Structure formats: C-alpha cells, structure tokens
Amino acid sequence: MDRVRLNVPLLRKRVPNLTAASRSVGLRPATVSNLCTGKIPIERAEVRTLIALATLAECSLDDLILKGYGGEMIETGIKVVDFFAPLVSGGINGFVARPGMGQLVLLAEIFKRLTDKEYKTVFLLSPNADPGVSDVIEVASTVCNNVEEVYNHILKIGKNHEVALAADRSLVLNGELYTLHNQLEKKGIQPITTFLVDPRGDAVDEEEPYGPLESLWQFDADLASRRMYPAVNPIQSTSVIIENSQLEPIHNLLLQRARKLLRRYRELRFLVNAVGFEKLPSLDKQVYLRGERIEAYLTQPFFVAESFTNKPGQYVNLHDTIRDIQQIIDGALDEIEVKEFSYIGKLHL
C-alpha cells in the first residue's frame, strides 16, 4: 500500500509564511510543521486541517496529498548526521544552536564534503555576520551579498551542477527564501539543497524556529561543554527521511535501539554525578558504559579543522557507521576503553 504525504513544496510555494498563515486560520503551527516533516502521519490528520491547508494553498486535496516519498539522502560521511538525522537532497535543513557550539564549523565541513561530490556551494553573507562565518567562506564555491546575486549565480550554474545554498534564518523570516526557490523553479532549476543557520542562537528558544524542515540538527550544550564535536544531539535531531520510514530496515532498527540506550544513558549521567558509578545496578552500569562508547564514537575529526586538531579528517560511510554502532550496542566492544572511541573514523575490528 502506498504511503501518502503532504505536497510540502506546493505549500511553500503558495503559502510563503506558512507558520503565520496556519495560525491565522486556527491551525497550530506545530501541528502543521509535524505534518510537513512526517512526525504526524497524514493518515492521522483531521479532515478540517487538510481542508484548511488546501484552502490556504488554493489547491485541491488531490494536489495537496501525494503518494510515496521524495527527497533522497545525501551521505556526508559524518557519523552523527548520516545515522541520526540524514541530510535531504533538495530539502531545507536547519541548525539550532547557541553561539559557540560549532554549527558554522559543521556547515563548513558539510560544504567541504559536498564540494568533493562536485556540488557548487553558495553562501549568502548576511549583514553583521558572525565572525565564525569565515570558516564557511573559506570553503564555499561562491559568496553572495544579497538574494539577487544568489538568484543570478544559481541561474547560471543550476542546470549543470547540483547546488547547495546556506543562509541566515532571517531569509526565512522575511519570506525571501521561498520567493527565491519559486523563482528558480520557474526557470527549470531543480530544488536546491538549502542550509539555514542561526549564529545568534535566537532559534533555540522558539517552538518553530524555521517552519517545516526536511532535516533539523539540534546542538547540545552538554556535549559542547565537554568538547565532544560535532555537538549534535542524536536524540533531538531528526530528518524527514527517518520520519517517513525511508531507512533500510537494519538502520531503522539500530536507530531506535541507539536512541533508547542514549536516553537512558543521559538519565544515568545525573545519577552518576550525584552518587557515583559504583552505586548503579549492574544492568545500568552496562547501559552507561555503552552509552559512553556511542557518545565518544560519534565525535569525529573534520577536514576543515585539521590545522587546529592536528588530526586528519575522516569520512565514514553509512555502512561502517551502522556496523560499528551495532557492535557497541550488542556489547561486542565492551572490553575496549572508552577513550579509544573518541575522535576516530570507523572502528578497525
């Protein structure tokens, strides 16, 4: 039986400020966002919700509801991204982080890896840009100063190359991003893979910081404080590829097991800090140590940071990441010290 989903590109095209528009007709923005990302299956949506969305988009229900799922995963070779919140080709992907957590370094690394896959990377430099954007500027194929420059540049190259665009979230808030996508679509340009960053950290405190996204990478203050980079929260980060069950069965099974283990591990960290590791029951000790190993394994040397870390960047294909995480969860690596998992590529078993 075919699965169904909302025609999100159509919604974005017809209703640029979807969050505000949804609220104006009595819909909860969080509900609309969850329907767009697949967190709420469309089969569970109320009829009145779908009718309201169709009315906003001035389309029929047949146009609003599509069979099957589009948007393929782009493998980045970054373990925490590929396993827990895959990057979606042609989608809008957002970072949510406080300043200093490394979101711009992760963006620069993704740009570097996409360039190696022959993408053309475009960075829209916002006024009063954060100093950290220099990391991205160094690796971007092109830096533009306004949306018109972006449009003209992508128009020249977009039919011959895959394009990745990164910009400040203000581009969403003022509606320019959706206008840009719409203009490019009219010129026959395929959907461009878009990244939205928030160097000031305003998005952290908002329920719907970007509106509907294909992938969201939530950064974690605890990981950043312990210098475990990339400090992407593996539990809170997600992707429409996961929500829409597009993963291979073994990946999906291990993802659920890993998140369950990591949730319990994070609970146990509070107990360990309060009463000590030795006070834990034996089964909790096992969970705690395996959680430590997964957490350490998800750190990774980046190519863009080689001059600072003196460690060569590591690309880890998804197959190896799945295999390694399965070994950790199943206890096959319980005898290996936790420190041996930190800042490596794949495990050499």
From TrEMBL:
InterPro entries: ATP-synt_VA_C, ATPase_a/bsu_AS, ATPase_alpha/beta_chains, ATPase_F1/V1_b/a_C, P-loop_NTPase. Keywords: ATP synthesis, ATP-binding, CF(1), Ion transport, Membrane, Nucleotide-binding, Translocase, Transport. Its main location: membrane. Residues 246-327 form the ATP synthase A/B type C-terminal domain. It is found in: Membrane. Pfam families: ATP-synt_VA_C. Belongs to the ATPase alpha/beta chains family. PANTHER family: ATP SYNTHASE (PTHR15184), ATP SYNTHASE SUBUNIT BETA, MITOCHONDRIAL (PTHR15184:SF71). This is ATP synthase A/B type C-terminal domain-containing protein. The lineage of its organism: Bacteria, Bacillati, Bacillota, Bacilli, Bacillales.
